[in-house]
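Course assignment 3, question 2. Fill in each field.
Student: A.L.
Task: Predict the tertiary structure for the chain below.
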Amino acid sequence: MEALRFAEAGSEQNRTQGSYQRIKPNQRTPFGHKHKQEEELYVVVGGSGRAKLDDEIVELEQWDAVRVAPGTMRNFEGGSDGIEIIAFGSRGLGVDDIEMSPGWWND
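Answer field:
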């Protein structure tokens, strides 16, 4: 993964945050993760690639959006030109909401 940037809305009332992620060509994020309560929305803003959602692999192109429900393990892979994703989710749920799984997608 080449870049990861987080942005939070300025209002205390707004519980949304976003992150920009750029994954190099033919590379995967080094871990899978899932949330107990949080759902996330991923929007492909550049390039293409794939997502693994539990046991399903989904092809992604620019402007595709993927909603990931709580409890779904996920990981992303850049295509031949890499992939750029903006992820939207909640803030304030804390580390108790996330489960990380290093090397989860390893075929």
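Instructor remarks: Residues 3-9 have pLDDT under 50 and may be disordered. Residues 29 and 101 are 11 Å apart (CA to CA).
Grade: pending
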